[in-house]
Task: structure prediction
Amino acid sequence: MLPEEEPPPPPPRGRTRAARKIQAWWRGQLVRRALLHAALRAWIIQRWWRQALEQLLQRKRREALVSFAIRERAVVKLQSLVRMWRVHWRYTQVLSAIYLIRCHWLSHRCQTCALLRGHCVVTATHLQFHIEITNP
Result:
């Protein structure tokens, strides 16, 4: 049979306490390091997410601005076309009235007896003609 071995003598009490303190300090260091790394990773993810939201907000603002500019340009163009059409319509009305007066006047009198003089004023909303019929 094998002789029984004696267990090693217990370490002195002071060394055990010191070893436990060193182990506790090292475990604390490892936990603090793990928490620091986790906090840094969370901070990086939060920063990335805030940046992504900011970019999304900027893109939405840019799209809204472009949409507004396109609508505004279309409205200005439409207003311009309507104003141009109204002035043209009024101008053709006045011209047809002048032609009618001229034809009527010239058909009743000879061409050398009367002279037509006209003056035109164009404003934003009106087209004004002043016609004078003079005898030479």
User: Anything to note?
Assistant: The chain has one domain: 14-134. Residues 14-134 form one domain. The chain has a mean pLDDT of 83.
